[in-house]
C-alpha cells in the first residue's frame, strides 16, 4: 500500500469476523465499519458539504461514468480536482464506471479491449477501457479509485459470469499497470455473481495482488437476499485482513450488519437520498412514508434519539407538510436525516465491536 | 401601535425621502430599508432556516392563502405557531391571501362580504372574508399580518379600480375590528391601481387610521415600470413617517432604489428563489444564466465581493455543472446567493443613508 494509505484493525469481535478499524487516506481517517454517502455528480443530492459533514459522513463516493459525461473530468481537474471542485475536503472514492456502463447504457458493445456505448446525453460514441477509466479517475483525483470491472446482470449463466469474472481480472491487471498516482489507492473488485466457487477463485486471485483495498462487487443487482449473504460470507474472509474491505451498493441495516459480521468495513448506497426524494424517512431501520395521514399532526421529531439537524429542529408534521407540498426543503431534511441514520448505525456497530458487544446488541439484525 | 412594535428613523437622506430605521417586533429588530425573502409554504424554497439566517435575512414572509390550503392553520398552530413550526425565530409577516385569491384562484366570486373560490387542491368551496383572513393569520401567529384587500389586475378600468379600492377600505375597517392579538401588528394596504388620484385618496384615508404599518399593494402586477415608479413616488410620502412602509412584491435593484428614495422601508419578492430554480444568478443587479457556455470553465466565485456560503465555497463552473445536471443543490446555492445579494443591496443602501451618501453611491439605480 502506498505510504499515503494504511488500514489498522483496532478490535475484533470474539464471535464473528467483525472488526473496528481505521483506514487512513491523504484526506484524513475513515473509522470503520462505516457507511459512505453517494455523491454521483460531485454532490450528495440536495445537501451541501456543510450539511453532509454534520451527518457524520467521513468518506463519500462520486461517479466516474456520470462525471465523464457531465461536466467532464477536465473541467473537474481545472477546478482543482474533485475535492476542491465540490467543496469536500474529506476522503473520497470514485467508482470505475463499470457498473454504470453495464446497468445504464444502451447499445453497449463489450470486447476484450473495453466497452463501447452511446452517451445518453448527446448520442456520442464513448469507448471506455480499463486504462481510460483509470485515466479519468487519475484526472478526477479521489483518494480511492476503483478497478474497471465487468458486472453481469442477475440472473446470468455460469459461463457468462465466468467469462466476465476472468475478464475483470485481466482488466484489473491493466488498471494496475496504468495507474500512476501514489496519492490514490486502487481497489480491486471481486466479481463472480452468485456462483460461490467463482467468487472464491476471484477473491484468492485478487488477494495475491497485494492491493491497498478490496471490494465485493456485483451484489444488490437483483439477487435474493440469502444469496447476497452467502456471497459476502464466502468472499469477505478470503480478502487480506490487513486491507479495507468494501461491499459495493449495500445499505440496509440487515445487509450491513451481516456483512460486518463477515469482516466488511465499508458500504455505500443511494437509498438515503433516493428514499428522501420519495418522502421516505429511515427511522431505526424502518421505512416511513411521510405522506401518511398519521404524520399530519405528529409534532414529535422523526427520531427522538437522533441529533441530526432535521430531528433537532423540525417535527414529523412539518416534514410531512413539506413533502405533501413537494417542497425541496423536505427532501433536504429527509436526506440529512437518512444519511445520519445509516452512518449512526455503522458507528454504533463500531462502538459495540470495540466493546465486544456486537452480537448481543445487534442480534436482531444478524438473523 | 402596540407596545410590542415600534419604528424609529435613525437617519434621513438630505436629497431624497430615503430613511434608515429600525422596526422592532416581538421577535426582534428589522433594520430598514431591507429586503424580505418569501417563504410561501412555511419555508423559503430550497434553503434551511440556518442557511436563511446566513443570508442576512431578518424578517421573512409566509402566505396565508397557501398555508390555509396546506397544511391548514390549525396544524401550524398545533406545532406552536408559524415560528416554531418552520424553525424561524426572527420577525415574520403573513400576507392576507387577497393577492393570491385574485391572481391564482379560478371561479372566484366577489361580494361585499368576501370572496368565494374553489380550492385548487381538492375542489372544495372556500369562503374568505376580512374576518376569516384575520382569524387565519391570528392562528398562524406571524408578527405582522396584512389586511384582506381586493387587488384588481392590470389593466383595469377606473371604475373597477375605484370600486375595489373603496371595498378594500371597508374590508380594512372590518379587519381592524376583528383583529385581537396585540402581539401581531396589522398593516393596511393602499390600493388604487395606476390612478394616482385614487392612490392619494386611499393613502390619506388609511393614514388617518393610525395603523402600526402601511403597505403599497397592487404594483408589480403587469403595469409598465414608469407607472410603478409614479405610484410609489406619489403614495409613499403620504403614509405616516413614524410608521414602516412596505412595498409589496417588489425586488429589483432599480425598483427598490427608487422606492427607498420615496421613503419605502420594506420589500418582498419571490425572484431570488424563483430565478435560482431557473439556474439564474443575480450578480450586482444583473441576471446571469448559469447554463451559458461561458461559465463551464469559469472557476471564479459568482461574485467575488459576496461572502455568502455559495460564493465562499464554490465556483461558477461548479454551479453551472449542478444546474446543467438539474441537481437540486445548484438551486439551493443560487437561492442562498440571490437572497444574500438582494438583502446586501438594501443593507448597502442603509449604510449609505446613514452616511448621507445615498444619491451619490446609488445614482445608477435612481435614474
UniProtKB/TrEMBL annotation, chains A, B:
Active site: 95, 268
Subunit structure: Homodimer. Within each dimer, one monomer is responsible for RNA recognition and catalysis, while the other monomer binds to the replacement base PreQ1.
Region (RNA binding): 249-255, 273-277
Principal EC category: transferase
Reactions performed catalytically: 7-aminomethyl-7-carbaguanine + guanosine(34) in tRNA = 7-aminomethyl-7-carbaguanosine(34) in tRNA + guanine
Domain tRNA-guanine(15) transglycosylase-like: 16-365
EC number of this enzyme: 2.4.2.29
InterPro entries, alphabetized: ArchSynthase1/Queuine_TRR, TGT, TGT-like_sf, tRNA_ribo_trans-like
Designated name of the protein: Queuine tRNA-ribosyltransferase
Amino acid at each position: 500500500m502506498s505510504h499515503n494509505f494504511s488500514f489498522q484493525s483496532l478490535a475484533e469481535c470474539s464471535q464473528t469476523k467483525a472488526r473496528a478499524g481505521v483506514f487512513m487516506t491523504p484526506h484524513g481517517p475513515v473509522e470503520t465499519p462505516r457507511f459512505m454517502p453517494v455523491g454521483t455528480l460531485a454532490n450528495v443530492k440536495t445537501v451541501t458539504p456543510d450539511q453532509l459533514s454534520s451527518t457524520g459522513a467521513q468518506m463519500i463516493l462520486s461517479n466516474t461514468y456520470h462525471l465523464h459525461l457531465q461536466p467532464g473530468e477536465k473541467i473537474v481537474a481545472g477546478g482543482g480536482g474533485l475535492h476542491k471542485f465540490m467543496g469536500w475536503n474529506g476522503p473520497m472514492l470514485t467508482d470505475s464506471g463499470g457498473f454504470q456502463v453495464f446497468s445504464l447504457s444502451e447499445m453497449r458493445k463489450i470486447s476484450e479491449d473495453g466497452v463501447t456505448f452511446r452517451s445518453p446525453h448527446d448520442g456520442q460514441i464513448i469507448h471506455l477501457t480499463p486504462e481510460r477509466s483509470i485515466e479519468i479517475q487519475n484526472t478526477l483525483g479521489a483518494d480511492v479509485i476503483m478497478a474497471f470491472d465487468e458486472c453481469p446482470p442477475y440472473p446470468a449463466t455460469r459461463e457468462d459470469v465466468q467469462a466476465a469474472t476472468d475478464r475483470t481480472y485481466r482488466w484489473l491487471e491493466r488498471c494496475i499497470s496504468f495507474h500512476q498516482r501514489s496519492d490514490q489507492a486502487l481497489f480491486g473488485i471481486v466479481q463472480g455473481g452468485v456462483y460461490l466457487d467463482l467468487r472464491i477463485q476471484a477473491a484468492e486471485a485478487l488477494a495475491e495482488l497485494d492491493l491497498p483495498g478490496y471490494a465485493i462487487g456485483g451484489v444488490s443487482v437483483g439477487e435474493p437476499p440469502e444469496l447476497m449473504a452467502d456471497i459476502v460470507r464466502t468472499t469477505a474472509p478470503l480478502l487480506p485482513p490487513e486491507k479495507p474491505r468494501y461491499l459495493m451498493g449495500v445499505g440496509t441495516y440487515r445487509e450491513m450488519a451481516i456483512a460486518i459480521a463477515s469482516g466488511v468495513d465499508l458500504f455505500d448506497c443511494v437509498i438515503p437520498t433516493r428514499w428522501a426524494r420519495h418522502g421516505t424517512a429511515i427511522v431505526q431501520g424502518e421505512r416511513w412514508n411521510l405522506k401518511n395521514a398519521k404524520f399530519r399532526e405528529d409534532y414529535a421529531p422523526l427520531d427522538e434519539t437522533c441529533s441530526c439537524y432535521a430531528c433537532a429542529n423540525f417535527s414529523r408534521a412539518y416534514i410531512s407538510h413539506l413533502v405533501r407540498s413537494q417542497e425541496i426543503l423536505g427532501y433536504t431534511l429527509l436526506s440529512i436525516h437518512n444519511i445520519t441514520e445509516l452512518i449512526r448505525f455503522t458507528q454504533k456497530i463500531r462502538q459495540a465491536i470495540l466493546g465486544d458487544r456486537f452480537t448481543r446488541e445487534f442480534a436482531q439484525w444478524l438473523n
